[in-house]
Specification:
Layout (H helix, E strand, L loop, with lengths): L2 H16 L3 H13 L3 H14 L4 H13 L3 H14 L4 H13 L3 H14 L4 H13 L3 H14 L4 H13 L3 H14 L4 H13 L3 H13 L3 H10 L3
Helix pairs in contact: 2-3, 3-4, 4-5, 5-6, 6-7, 7-8, 8-9, 9-10, 10-11, 11-12, 12-13, 13-14
């Protein structure tokens, strides 16, 4: 290809690129985001924000892209900007709370999720994540309260029963904890942690046979820690 041909090709390419509107750029970014191509999507969103720095929707999806890439600090900064533009943006509060959780900033997580619940008292995920934050702060009564609400709002989610079971275990409510782990298993029989934690609870309840059966199941699902417990506690 000679110099003139290259020049003509460039001149043809240039107006085509210029014709892509801001809306089209955003749409392309969202398409990449939905394909889980978060880095590429984020680059487009950042480009759009150079011209529209207060575009709430683009800021939100840029933050989502960053959170998906474990860039939690950057995500928090952009969620905060979204909230400054719209202090009723419930998903920005929830996602910022989740980012704080990932950074083990549990008190800040709880503050954000409190706002989410104020905006929507039926937002079950907010109770689930806040319950986990309380649990990590060793506030087991508060975590149990949130997990009770999460189970009520979303009774079909196995992890809610599992998390509530853990809170009850820490509060020495072993029978209720065992029931919760059973509830989790009934909804998802392929999660080794559910069997492992029910096994530990059953040992506290002197249900050793059932505990060993649970450890065997956990081992069959690939739990190496359960294998060590099985060898130590269930060998003849």
């Amino acid at each position: 290809m000679n110099k003139v041909t290259l020049l003509l090709a460039f001149l043809f390419w240039l107006p085509v690129q210029a014709q892509e509107s801001m809306e089209q750029q955003i749409e392309r970014g969202l398409e990449l985001y939905n394909l889980e191509k978060y880095q590429e999507a984020g680059q487009i969103f950042e480009s759009v924000l150079q011209d529209e720095p207060d575009n709430e929707n683009v800021l939100f999806y840029l933050a989502n892209s960053q959170l998906a890439q474990f860039e939690s600090e950057k995500a928090i900064k952009n969620y905060t900007r979204v909230i400054e533009l719209n202090n009723q943006h419930i998903d920005a509060f929830f996602n910022r709370g989740s980012a704080h959780y990932e950074l083990a900033k549990y008190k800040k997580c709880i503050e954000d999720l409190k706002k989410v619940i104020e905006l929507d008292s039926a937002y079950s995920d907010a109770f689930s994540v806040r319950g986990s934050a309380w649990f990590n702060l060793e506030e087991y009564e508060k975590s149990l309260e949130d997990f009770n609400k999460a189970v009520t709002l979303d009774p079909g989610r196995a992890s809610n029963y599992y998390d509530r079971g853990n809170s009850r275990f820490m509060l020495e409510q072993y029978e209720m904890a065992a029931k919760d782990f059973t509830g989790a298993i009934e909804l998802n029989a392929e999660e080794s942690d559910y069997y492992f934690n029910r096994a530990l609870t059953r040992f506290y309840l002197d249900m050793n046979t059932g505990a060993c059966e649970d450890l065997e199941k956990a081992v069959s699902l690939g739990d190496e820690e359960a294998a060590e417990f099985l060898k130590e506690l269930c060998s003849d």
